[in-house]
Amino acid sequence: MVGDHGWKIHKKKHSGLVNMCRFFAFDSLIGFVLVLLVASRYKRICTEKKKVDLYSADLFTAMQVRRATMDDMYNMQHTNLRCLPENYNLRYYLYHILSWPQLLYVCEDMNKKTVGYVLGKMDDEEEAAKAHGHITSLAVLRTHRKLGVASAVMRATMREMDQEYEANFCSLHVRKTNEAALHLYQETLGFRCAEIDEKYYVDDEDAFHMKKYFRGNKQSSLFYVTEQKTLAKQAAAAVITPPTTSTHKDPVAAIAANTTPEAAKAAAAATAAKGSDKKGKGKK
Ligand SMILES: CC(C)(COP(=O)(O)OP(=O)(O)OC[C@H]1O[C@@H](n2cnc3c(N)ncnc32)[C@H](O)[C@@H]1OP(=O)(O)O)[C@@H](O)C(=O)NCCC(=O)NCCS
């Protein structure tokens, strides 16, 4: 009895202890698993973030800007069809590459897919002083925009126009409402507007006829396109409105962007009265 009783008591004590141990073991196992889950989730988040950062950082370095070849013509046309309403038949691309092979550039991604192009040409003039290049078309796939692709292909073709063909300037047309292209040409590449060509496009939209001089001093005679899509004289603008709060990188552009044509005219008159040496002060 005693023995039995003792054994029973002992058994009861033992099973209570075991239960407690089991309970704590189970509890800590759950805790451990939870900790593992949280840790692995955290690690995955960190790895994904790192992957994304690496992707955007390496995207441009993995891309290649190079002169176009005959093999690129079809892909250029395809990119153009996906990006712009102004399209051309394949013969027009072939005409460009056969006539001015140095003025066509493409950008391709790491899989050798064409993601952007520029189609340039020379406008032959009888007088050497008037020889100039022209950008027929430029486009970058939506997936690869704002990575510097357009700037890179534009700079490459402009360098060829300048060095290979001794062009005096490069010209192009851009839609009045094309903010992205206007920013690229005016702020990033330093183009200025020569005139507004009214109803230039088939849908009657006006075009800014823009130019960038490689030599000489004619660049300063061009106009800056303001945010209101009016033209402002840079030199005059510099006299009247100091650049205070503008976000533009180019100080001359910043000054002109804050100026209306009326203000520009008034400033031009004021400048003329002050003498020709002061007139050139704000010029680029
Ligand atoms: C216009 C276009 C070619 C720009 O190509 P992109 O490769 O994105 O241009 P980049 O990355 O070289 O950017 C050049 C500058 O333009 C700015 N930019 C690009 N897209 C912009 C947008 N949507 N709005 C404002 N600025 C923009 C960039 O921030 C950069 O400015 P920064 O030099 O001050 O930093 C591209 O948007 C496109 O293919 N558009 C459709 C086709 C087209 O309009 N072609 C031009 C016809 S004239």
UniProtKB/TrEMBL annotation:
Domain of life: Eukaryota
Record's keyword annotation contains Transmembrane helix: yes
Domain named N-acetyltransferase: residues: 63-215
Pfam families registered for this protein in UniProt: Acetyltransf_1
CC annotations in GO: NatA complex
Entry GO MF terms: protein N-terminal-serine acetyltransferase activity; protein-N-terminal-glutamate acetyltransferase activity
Identification of the protein by name: N-acetyltransferase subunit ARD1, putative
Lineage: Eukaryota, Discoba, Euglenozoa, Kinetoplastea, Metakinetoplastina
